[in-house]
Structure formats: structure tokens, C-alpha cells
Design goal:
Shape of chain A: rod-shaped
Number of strands of chain A: 0
CATH superfamily of the domain at 23-95 in chain A: Cytochrome C biogenesis protein
Helix content of chain B: 55-70%
Distance between the termini of chain B: 60 Å
Radius of gyration of chain B: 27 Å
Largest interface: A-B, 50 and 54 residues
CATH architecture of the domain at 23-95 in chain A: Orthogonal Bundle
Oligomer: heterodimer
Largest sheet of chain B: 6 strands, antiparallel
CATH architecture of the domain at 1-157 in chain B: Up-down Bundle
CATH class of the domain at 1-157 in chain B: Mainly Alpha
Number of helices of chain B: 21
Chain lengths: 158, 660
């Protein structure tokens, strides 16, 4: 058990290493892809071809090389250009809805499909074995079921 | 001179077609339907005349027309004068209307005299849609508006659109968008006429496949255009207009899969009609997005009143479609039920859930900025980071299902049989994932993508091997002839598998972006920079001048491992007519990786700002698209008889039942 835990921990550390060891320029490029360019409407800073955008990218690179973390760079950009500079909805408040809704739709769709498949395949199985479907409204207790069987047997015996 | 009168005549003819189709449908009179069909052809002829008038005005530099002034110039190279037809909003709507009326005419005529009432109702829908577009061309988006003062030259076409890709990409996208009108009209026609049996979808499937194929190739060509022209090192930015083309593609893909269940098992009829409706509405929604200015995108046309016209049209199509489905629900009951959880039907259903969830995700991400602005008052944007995070798991699940689906049999399958078939692909996929992890690949997404792609490729390969084995043993054929016969004897099935293989290659290309490297530097002549394993030395700048632009070209020597491997020439040009700078990218492409170099700025002392990228495996995206196109060709080349034999049988059976 310990061995498995150790192996899995090592794996996760190895997989997380690129984030920890990312070069400042890679951090800057990544951030430029996560913010909207104040100079090209609807385009990320990374993709904006204007000179002003190139200058801002250079500033972000300089911050990254000076050892600033992602959060500090994002906060600085947000204080300069406002919250609309973020090209990724925050995972809190109203922004959370952006992330959660697709998952809810997928889960609802998967749940519905699974229910339908189960319902249909059960009906097909019953039809194949000749078993009559049990009406949803007819839910009997064990004693009621025994009484029903007895009375049906008595009825048949008449 | 001819353009506007031609459009007015087309509107009159189209209104006539609409009325005649309606009367033909209501009275079941074939002569009225035939007259309507002729009126539709006349309208198409008038629209062709209007297009010819605009194209000849563009070539003749007739600057009395505002459209010619805005989108062309005397220096515009010949082939790109054609691009100017769809380079502006009015021209693109004219081109759209031309395609719509041509497709409508062909679709109506191709069915001949079968099912006259269905044809009449479908014609009614198509004529109604065409009349709306003609009205747009006559009122808010008139391509024949004249100038009060005639200038000596035009403003020219946007330099970004002066690319070979732009000669093909927009027409293919429009073919896709417009092509979806035909299945929509056919489905509505079948429902309105009360003949929603098995035959209507046989026609819709073929048209959907045609439109879907055009849209698929159009989307990939759009990516290739972005990659080679925009200079940011990528091919897909999840831009609202890109998304607008992707959403109907996703729902159409779902339909093309689920219609197989309808054909084989007479199930999911309501769902299929809903998918056709969704596909058409999303195609129109994309047009609305592009023309309304509601969302920012580099692909949108200038803002105008046209977008406002689309909203009521969009709402009318959606409501009318939903109401028609609701009214005819009793015609759309399933004849069969699903037999078991482990079956191909279940795999198709899961596929549909994933595709529709993917379409919703893209739609939601696209409209979220508007929703957020309404709720919070702050204009937000949703960029690639959001879409990549939400879409990637769905995409990977779709790839995995692409491999599992073909292994499953119809109706039911034992878990043991599935286990036996699935074992080789699982082993291959796991081996690749583990091998790459051991070799040092650390991106979880890329590892999963390569693993799932291998799984699916091996599963599909196995299908080809099993199919060919039969021909080899029965007819004593070699592997290649047996493979060819397998492909050609069942084009629908194996053509579909070829398309799936293309998708696998494309996903491999996407996964390569996890290892993308980007480096930027400001270099003086003689200075070098490193990007990935390459060493780039900027040697200097060369200038030249044409009638269209000032060319500023950098010479960049590429070295690797100490040896010189080539020279690249990225440009940063200035276009006179548009007063606009434009970068021309230099790309050195191989199946392993692309070296992508852009020069964004030159200084007076000859220094250059250089952006360079190493994009691994991008080549596989274009190769995958070519394989997909091959598969589409195989699918579309299947004869009508091959398209829907089960559907035809069912239709005959239903008619016998009805007659009896």
C-alpha cells in the first residue's frame, strides 16, 4: 500500500514538474494567452498583432524574469486594465457558472441516456422472456402480493 | 445596372414559388408544385445574373458601386478580385443566396415526382428562407448601392483576405452552412405533410453529409489560413466566428451518427429531427454573430443593421421548427427499443451525448461574455484557456468512443466478446502512454491524447484487417486488393472509418501543441536567438516596392546542432490602399515539427522584432484533414442504393401497412 502511494506520489510530482520548472518566457506566453488584449478587441494578448500588445508582452516577460508569480502578474494586469482583461472566467461567484454549466449539461445528458438505455433494455428483456411489465403505480407489499396470489389461485380454481 | 433589377425580379419569382409551393402542398396538386419548382429555377437564374453583375463590376473597377470601392482596387491581383465577392458583408450574403437557391433547385428537382406533398412543403420552407435573404439584399445589405462621387480607386481588399486559402475557405464554409438548409427543409416538409416515415432522412442524410464535408474542409482550411496569415503561431483561437462554424459541425456530426440508428433500428426519430433543427439554427446563429457586431472578432464584417434582421428570423425558424416537431410527435414514435447497454446503439447514444454537450460548451463559452455583461455589467471575454480546459476532456472521450463504437455489435453483445475485441487496442494505447511517460513526456493531456489515438487507430485498423481477411480467404486476394475491395464494397462503413482515422491524425496534431515553444527577441543584424533546438541568426533586411505594398523582408539563417539547415524570409509589409501593416509568416514544415518565424517590426537601424515558434506535429493536422477528405469522398461516392437500403425497405413496408 505504502509502495503504491509512493509510486503514485512520484508520478504526480513528475507530471507537475513542468509547471514548477517553467521558464519565465513560457510563463509570460501562458499569461498572454489568458488575458484579453486591451488593444485588439476580442483577441488574446498573445495573438494581438499590435505594437502596444508586443510592448505589454515584453513587460510581462520582464516581470516573469524578475521572479513574479502568475498571481502577482495577473493582479497587476487587472489593477491596470480592469477585470475585463481576464480571458478566463474566475472559478468563483458568477464566473463559476461558466465552468459548472457545461459539466451539468454533460452529466444530465449522460444520466438521461443511461436511464433511457436501462429502461429500454429492461423492457426488451421482459418482452423477450415473456414477463409482463410491472405497472409503476402497482407497488405491493409482500403480504399484499401473497394475498393477491392466493386470491388469483382461488379464482382460477373456481 | 443589372444587379438590383435582377434581385427585385428574383424576389418576385421567389415569392411566386413560395405561394405556389404552399398551394401545391395544401391542395396536393402536382401541377402547382411543378410551376413552383420552375419559379424557383427562374429566381436562381436572376440571382446568378446579379452575382455576374457584381463580379463583372469588380473586374471592371466600376467605382460607381460602393461595394467595389470598399473591397477592391485597381492593384488587386486578378484571382483575389473573386475573393472580393465574399470579402464584404453584402457580397457574401449575395453569394450565400446564390448557393441557397442553386441547392434548393437541385434538391427539389433531384427528387422528381416522388412524394409531391413533402416536396411542396420542403420547397415552401426553402423559398421562404430564400425570400428572407433576398429581402436582406434589397433593403439593409444592398451590394449595388451607388456612390455619390466616383473615386479614382478603391480601398482594396483586406490584405489578410489576399491569400489562396481565402479563394476556397469561405465558399466551402458557405456551402456547409447553406447546405444544412436542405435537410432542415426536408425534415420540416416531411413533418408538415404528415409523412415523417423512413424515407425523408435518406435524402437528408446525403445532403447533410455533403454540407458537413464542405464545412469540415472549410473549417480546416480556415485553420490553415489563420496559421499562415495571422502570425500568432496557432491555427485555432476559439474566436466567436470560428466557434460559429464549429457548433453546427458538432450537431451535424451527432446527426450523421444517430441517423444510422434510425435507419437500422427505426429509433431516435424525434432526436434526429431536433438535431437537424439545431444544426440549421446554429448555422444561422453563426451568420447572425458574424454580421451583428454583438461579439468582437477579427472575422466579423463591419457592424450594420443586418444583424437585427437575423434575430427575428432565427427566432421564427426555432419556434416554427419546435412547434412542427411538437405537433407531429405521434409520427415520430420509435418502432424499436434499445436491447442492451453493451451495444452499438448505446455507443452511438453516448457519442450523441458527447457531441451535443460539446456543442453546448462551445455555445455557452461564446455567449458567456454577453450573459456576464447582462448580469454583472462587466464586459468579459472567454479565451482559449477556458475552451481548451472544458473541451479537451470531451474531445478525448469522443476519440475513445470512436474506437469503441466499431467494435460493438448491433442490438447486444456479451461483455466477454467485447473484452476480446477491445484487448489489443487497450494494450497498444496503454503501451504508447506508458512508453511516452517513461521517455519523458509530462503533459497529462498529451499522454492521454496519444494513448486514446493509438487505441482508436488500432481498433479501426482491426476492423479493416477483419474485413480484408474475408476477401483474402474467399477470393484468394493479396492484402492491398482485399483492403481496396473492403473499402469499396461497403463505402458507408469503411469510408466512415477512414474519416475517423483522419480525426485521429488531427487529434495527434492538436496534442503536439502541448510541446509548443515560443521565443521572442529584438535582434540587430548578425545577432542570434534560440528556439527549441534551432538557432536563428538574423542577417539583415531587404526592401522592395510594388504597386500594392512596401515589402520589408528579413533574412533569417536557421541552424541546428551546429550546422546550417536553411534560410527563411519572413516579411513585415505595408499595404498602401488599406494603410495597413501585414506580416507574412515563414514556415519550415516537417512531420515532426514546424519552425514558424514572424517579424513584427523593423527599426530604422535595421533591427527586427522576431517571434519564433516550434510547433510539434502540426503537419499531422493537415495530413489528417486530407485523410478525412478521402473518407468523405468514399462516403459521398456511395450510390443512392447503398446510402439507405434499410431505409428504403422500411419505407416500402410502411407504405404497405398504410395502404393495407
Amino acid at each position: 500500500m505504502r509502495k503504491a502511494l509512493l509510486v503514485s506520489l512520484t508520478c504526480w510530482i513528475m507530471l507537475a514538474m513542468p509547471w514548477a520548472l517553467a521558464a519565465p518566457e513560457d510563463v509570460a506566453n501562458d499569461i498572454a494567452g489568458r488575458v484579453t488584449s486591451p488593444f485588439c478587441p476580442g483577441v488574446t494578448l498573445h495573438d494581438c498583432p499590435s505594437q502596444a500588445a508586443a510592448d505589454l508582452r515584453t513587460r510581462i516577460s520582464a516581470w516573469a524574469e524578475a521572479g513574479w508569480g502568475r498571481n502577482r502578474i495577473m493582479a497587476t494586469l487587472e489593477s491596470e486594465y480592469g477585470p475585463q482583461i481576464r480571458a478566463v472566467p474566475p472559478a468563483s461567484g458568477t464566473g463559476l457558472v461558466a465552468w459548472v454549466l457545461p459539466v451539468v449539461v454533460l452529466a444530465a445528458g449522460a444520466g438521461l441516456a443511461l436511464t433511457l438505455i436501462r429502461h429500454w433494455s429492461a423492457a426488451t428483456r421482459r418482452a423477450r422472456t415473456g414477463e409482463a411489465p410491472e405497472p409503476d403505480s402497482l407497488s405491493l407489499s409482500l403480504s399484499e402480493r401473497r394475498r393477491l396470489d392466493d386470491e388469483l389461485a382461488a379464482f382460477k380454481g373456481r | 445596372m443589372l444587379g438590383r433589377p435582377a434581385l427585385l425580379c428574383a424576389l418576385v419569382a421567389m415569392t411566386g414559388a413560395l405561394v405556389l409551393f404552399f398551394l401545391g402542398a395544401r391542395t396536393d396538386r402536382r401541377d402547382l408544385s411543378e410551376a413552383a419548382s420552375r419559379a424557383l429555377a427562374v429566381a436562381a437564374a436572376f440571382i446568378s445574373l446579379a452575382v455576374a453583375a457584381l463580379v463583372s463590376a469588380l473586374f471592371a473597377h466600376d467605382f460607381s458601386l460602393a461595394y467595389v470601392v470598399n473591397y477592391s482596387s485597381r492593384s488587386l491581383a486578378g484571382p483575389y478580385t473573386i475573393s472580393a465577392l465574399w470579402g464584404g458583408m453584402e457580397g457574401s450574403l449575395l453569394f450565400w443566396t446564390l448557393l441557397l437557391t442553386l441547392f434548393s433547385t437541385v434538391a427539389i428537382r433531384s427528387v422528381g415526382s416522388t412524394r409531391p406533398v413533402v416536396v411542396s412543403w420542403a420547397g415552401c420552407v426553402l423559398a421562404g428562407i430564400s425570400a428572407f435573404f433576398l429581402l436582406l439584399l434589397i433593403v439593409p445589405a444592398n451590394p449595388f448601392t451607388t456612390m455619390s462621387e466616383i473615386p479614382a480607386d478603391g480601398r482594396g481588399l483586406n490584405p489578410l483576405l489576399q491569400s489562396p486559402g481565402m479563394l476556397i475557405h469561405p465558399p466551402l464554409l458557405y456551402t456547409g452552412f447553406v447546405g444544412f438548409s436542405i435537410p432542415f427543409a426536408w425534415a420540416m416538409g416531411a413533418l408538415l405533410s404528415g409523412q415523417a416515415d423512413s424515407q425523408w432522412f435518406a435524402s437528408t442524410r446525403r445532403w447533410t453529409l455533403f454540407a458537413w464535408s464542405a464545412l469540415s474542409i472549410g473549417i480546416v482550411l480556415g485553420g490553415a489560413w489563420a496559421y499562415t496569415e495571422l502570425g500568432w503561431g496557432g491555427y485555432w483561437a476559439w474566436d466567436p466566428v470560428e466557434n460559429a462554424s464549429f457548433m453546427p459541425w458538432l450537431t451535424a456530426t451527432a446527426y450523421l451518427h444517430s441517423v444510422v440508428i434510425q435507419e437500422k433500428r427505426q429509433m431516435l426519430k424525434v432526436w434526429n429531427v431536433a438535431l437537424i433543427l439545431a444544426t440549421y439554427v446554429l448555422a444561422v446563429f453563426g451568420t447572425f454573430l458574424t454580421r451583428s457586431g454583438i461579439l468582437s472578432s477579427i472575422h466579423t464584417f463591419t457592424e450594420g443593421d443586418t444583424g437585427v434582421w437575423f434575430l427575428p428570423f432565427l427566432a421564427a425558424m426555432l419556434l416554427a421548427g419546435l412547434a412542427t416537431i411538437a405537433l407531429r410527435l405521434d409520427h415520430l414514435k420509435s418502432d424499436n427499443r434499445l436491447d442492451a447497454l453493451v451495444s452499438r446503439e448505446s455507443a452511438f447514444l453516448a457519442n450523441n451525448v458527447l457531441f451535443v454537450a460539446a456543442a453546448f460548451t462551445v455555445l455557452w463559452g461564446t455567449v458567456y461574455p454577453i450573459v456576464a455583461e447582462v448580469v454583472t455589467g462587466v464586459r468579459l471575454s472567454v479565451g482559449p484557456a477556458f475552451f481548451n480546459a472544458v473541451f479537451a476532456p470531451l474531445g478525448l472521450a469522443i476519440v475513445a468512443l470512436t474506437g469503441i463504437g466499431p467494435l460493438m455489435s448491433w442490438r447486444r453483445m456479451s461483455r466477454g466478446a467485447l473484452g476480446r475485441l477491445i484487448r489489443p487496442p487497450v494494450i497498444a494505447g496503454s503501451a504508447v502512454t506508458i512508453g511516452l511517460a517513461v521517455a519523458g513526456v509530462r503533459s497529462v493531456g498529451a499522454l492521454l491524447a496519444f494513448g486514446f489515438c493509438t487505441f482508436t487507430a488500432v481498433a479501426i485498423g482491426g476492423e479493416f484487417v477483419r474485413g480484408s481477411r474475408v476477401y483474402r480467404s474467399r477470393h484468394r486476394l493479396g492484402w492491398a486488393p482485399a483492403l481496396a475491395r473492403t473499402l469499396l464494397r461497403n463505402r458507408r462503413r469503411y469510408g466512415g472509418y477512414v474519416v475517423h482515422l483522419g480525426v485521429v491524425l488531427i487529434v495527434i496534431g492538436f496534442a503536439g501543441s502541448a510541446f509548443k515553444v515560443e521565443r521572442n527577441a529584438f535582434l540587430k543584424p548578425g545577432e542570434s536567438m534560440k528556439v527549441g533546438a534551432y538557432n536563428l541568426t538574423y542577417e539583415g533586411m531587404r526592401q522592395a516596392r510594388t504597386s500594392e505594398k512596401q515589402i520589408n523582408e528579413a533574412t533569417v539563417v536557421v541552424g541546428r546542432g551546429g550546422s546550417r539547415i536553411g534560410v527563411m524570409h519572413p516579411q513585415s509589409n505595408f499595404h498602401f490602399a488599406q494603410r495597413q501593416p501585414q506580416s507574412e509568416v515563414a514556415i519550415r514544415t516537417t512531420p515532426v515539427e514546424d519552425l514558424y518565424v514572424v517579424v513584427t517590426q523593423f527599426d530604422a537601424d535595421g533591427s527586427a522584432a522576431i517571434r519564433s515558434f516550434v510547433n510539434p506535429l502540426t503537419w499531422w493536422i493537415w495530413a489528417g484533414a486530407a485523410v478525412m477528405a478521402l473518407g468523405m469522398g468514399v462516403l459521398l461516392s456511395g450510390g443512392r442504393g447503398e446510402v439507405a437500403p434499410a431505409a428504403a425497405r422500411n419505407a416500402v413496408r410502411e407504405r404497405v401497412v398504410v395502404a393495407g
